[in-house]
Amino acid sequence: MSDDQRASGTAGYLMEMGALKRGKRTGWWIVGVKDPETIAEHSFRTALIGAVLAMMEGADPARVALLCTFHDTQETRVGDIPWVGRRYLTAAKNEDVTRDQLADAHPAVAAGIQAVVDEYETGDSLEVLVAHDADKLECVIQGLEYLEQGYRNAREWVDTTRSRLKTPSAMALADAAETMSSLDWQRTYLR
């Protein structure tokens, strides 16, 4: 493949990732949220949470943020399948979807992103553990925000997801978030 074709393949991947800004997180529809967050919004805050958790847990923040950034990129092709739906479907592995997404990309880009996704899906390092907790903690925080907006059915999702947290830091942050309003951060500036 020529350099121009590889550049087009890589640019095509980047354009495809734009679909994450439009794709909604479907699990929230189940609890009645009419306009849930997008996959990209979830991934952005997951990456931030991942970096913070990594700092608290002594893991590599940049590595965790990178793992979190790419953790749901496959959803451009398979959609955001909620947990209840996964019981009835057999979907391609995220690693395989990523391989297809990057088939025409620059070889270094394809190898780099593939390695990140493979690590997130099958790794057992502290960074992977923290990245998985970041994904869950983001869901907990988003659920708390939806509860605050009146979506009472989000409570079960918050509690179930929270029970799956593994790191002490993620559990502590979930506990703290439970006691706060989503606007508590600005109260200092309003005084």
UniProtKB/TrEMBL annotation:
Keyword presence, Hydrolase: yes
InterPro entries given in the database record: HD/PDEase_dom, HD_domain, YfbR/HDDC2
Pfam families xrefs: HD_3
Keywords: Hydrolase, Metal-binding
Domain HD/PDEase: 35-149
Known cofactor(s): Co(2+); Mn(2+)
Gene3D superfamilies tied to this protein: Hypothetical protein af1432
Keyword flag Hydrolase: yes
Reaction equation(s) it catalyzes: a 2'-deoxyribonucleoside 5'-phosphate + H2O = a 2'-deoxyribonucleoside + phosphate
One annotated GO molecular function: 5'-deoxynucleotidase activity
Broadest EC class assigned to this enzyme: hydrolase
Gene Ontology CC: one annotated term: cytoplasm
This enzyme's EC code(s): 3.1.3.89
Subunit-structure text: Homodimer.
Protein name as it appears in the record: 5'-deoxynucleotidase
